[in-house]
Amino acid sequence: MVSIMGIRTLFRLSSILLPVFCLPLAPAAATGADPETLERLRALLLELKAEQARIGARIEALEAELEGSAGAPPQDAVSAAAPPPPVEAEVVEESRPSRLRLSGDLRLRYEGNYGDADAPVRNRGALRARLRAEYSVLDNLVVGAELATGSSDDPNSTDVTLSNFVDDFEVSLSRAFARYSLGPVDALGGKFANPFRRTDLVWDGDVNPQGAALVYSQPLGTAASLRAAGLYFLVDEAVAGPDSTMIGGQLALEAAPHPDLRASLAAGYYDYELDSLAGADAGDFRSNLRNGAGGYLSDFDLVDIIAALTYGGLGERWPVAVTGNYVTNLGAATADDTGFAVTLTAGRAQTPGDWRLGYGYAQAEVDAVLAAFSHDNLAIATNYEAHSLTLDFVPADHLTLNATFYRYRPLDMAFAGTNDPDDWLERLRLNLLVAF
Fold first, then answer.
1. pLDDT in tens, 268-309
2. CB under 8 Å to 343, separation ≥6 — which residues?
3. Are 309 and 322 within 8 A, CB to CB?
4. DSSP 8-state secondary structure symbol assigned to residue 294
5. Which pLDDT value is given to residue 282?
6. How confident is the model at residue 11 (pLDDT cuts 50, 70, 90)?
7. Is 60 exceeded by the pLDDT of residue 1?
8. How far is CA 150 from the centre of its chain?
9. Where are the alpha helices (DSSP H) in 68-113?
10. What is d(CA 149, CA 128) in angstroms, rounded to the nearest whole number?
11. Fewer Cβ atoms within 10 Å of its own Cβ: the N or the C terminal residue of the chain?
12. CB burial of residue 95 (10 Å; 0-12, 13-18, 19+)
């Protein structure tokens, strides 16, 4: 269809061409042209004028029609203003969930240490920052990594003391792994999160084993589940000699015998073969007993049992939980080979407005656990008895405030070292944790 603009253009063009076309008439009349020729030219001129009049009338009619359309834009204008339809491939890409997942946390801490009659009070600020990423290469294959602050030589702490004349923080790759899932089984390789159920008595939360692991999870009806985990832990590799390794496994059962009651039981066995100690330092031996050659006096074959009971009858914000952990070292070269811990908590720390209170008591004899991988919450790694009080509050999403108080002392004066067994040492920690 010819547009209004096109009709106007034709009309103006005819108005210009018509006088030009008629220019030959004047010379022809002046020179006495043939009357028959002049008559044909006059007839053509009249026909052109009539056509011009018809075009002008058509333009006026179309303009009147447009004025009566209540300002509706012409079809050409609507087509030009409408956005182009989305490309089909782009729609599919936007609807597909992202294959990359990021998470992390930042913790700011104040710590005060008191009660040692032979040492001054120590106050310090500390910081921990972690950033994790996982990418789904395939639907059942994930690769991941974690960056964390802290010394790369310390496997059970990511804290950095605010000191050293504002030197920059050390950051290291604390995890790098691949996870392949096949039905209820996950296979992991590299350096990854601990696959075992744990408490701080045996495993510090910052320890990321390296090697290979298998984890099997299976529901048992609607109110119970079974979980089995196995780990081949490459502790230290030797170039010309036997390595240091650990082979361990854990079986865990969870059940809800009542809507307000949940129980769990986990039993594990960890068999260490510590033949290579080239990568170990004083921070790895810590307070475990050592032989004349500088190595460990004991072997470490740990039986680790964890039981927990949670009651939810006081409301969803106030679950009450009790957890017990017992460990014994079947390979110890001393009778001081046992440890246990009991914690009682009330409340939760998940959503804004939540409160949680806790109390704990623990004892660990000198060679009950491998100190290289147990917790570092106290200044004594093993051979201690300790009380703890905790208070958590969640003021907003992704934000937790925590206060933790420890009171502890050496358990057996024969292994107290430089610590006075009569001194009750105290440690206060105030933490602000932001997680995303």
1. 999 999 999 999 988 899 999 999 999 999 999 999 999 999
2. 199, 322, 323, 358, 359, 360, 388
3. yes
4. S
5. 87
6. low
7. no
8. 19
9. 75-81, 88-95
10. 6
11. N
12. exposed
Contact between 51 and 18 under an 8 Å Cβ cutoff? The reply is no
CA 272 to chain centroid, in Å, comes to 31
H-helix or E-strand containing 16?
helix 4-22
Structure tokens at 18: 């018509």
When pLDDT is averaged across residues 184-195 and rounded to a whole number, the result is: 98
Q: How do residues 72-114 score in pLDDT, each as one tens digit? A: 444 443 333 444 444 444 444 445 568 999 999 999 999 999 9
- CA–CA separation, 218 and 230 (whole Å): 15
Q: How far apart, in whole angstroms, are the C-alpha atoms of residue 288 and residue 364? A: 11
Beta strands at 301-311 and 338-347: parallel, antiparallel or unpaired: unpaired
CA distance 307 to 322: 8
Residue 13 identity (one-letter amino acid): L
Spell out the CATH class of 105-435. Answer: mainly beta
CA 400 to chain centre: 17
3-state DSSP helix/strand/coil percent for the chain, to nearest 5? 20, 45, 35
Q: 91 — phi, psi (to 5°)?
A: -60, -45
In angstroms, rounded to a whole number, what is the distance separating the alpha carbons of residues 231 and 259? 34
pLDDT of residue 414 exceeding 60, the answer is yes
Whether 427 has a pLDDT exceeding 50, the answer reads yes
Which secondary-structure segment (H or E) carries 283? helix 282-285
Q: Please, what is the Cα angle at 92 between 86 and 93, to 5 degrees?
A: 100
What pLDDT, on a 0 to 100 scale, did the predictor assign at position 32? 53
Tokens for 323, please give them: 């957890």
CB atoms within 10 A of CB 54: 9
The two structure tokens encoding residue 260: 């307000």
Highest mean pLDDT among 38-52, 55-69, 81-95, 281-295: 281-295
Q: d(Cα 133, Cα 131) in Å, to the nearest integer? A: 7
In residues, how long is the chain? 436
Confidence of residue 319 (pLDDT cuts 50, 70, 90): very high
Q: Which residue has the tokens 């984890």?
A: 215
Q: Note the pTM of the prediction, 2 decimals.
A: 0.77
Q: Given a cut of 90, is residue 168 above it in pLDDT? A: yes
| Residue whose C-alpha is closest to residue 212's, from 186, 182, 183 | 186
Q: Which two tokens stand for residue 48?
A: 């052109």
The dihedral built from the CA positions of residue 146, 147, 152 and 158, taken in this order, carries a sign that is: negative
Gap between the Cα atoms of 50 and 270, Å rounded: 108
- The strand pairing partners of 232, in sequence order, are 212, 247
Quick one: how far is CA 39 from the chain centroid?
95
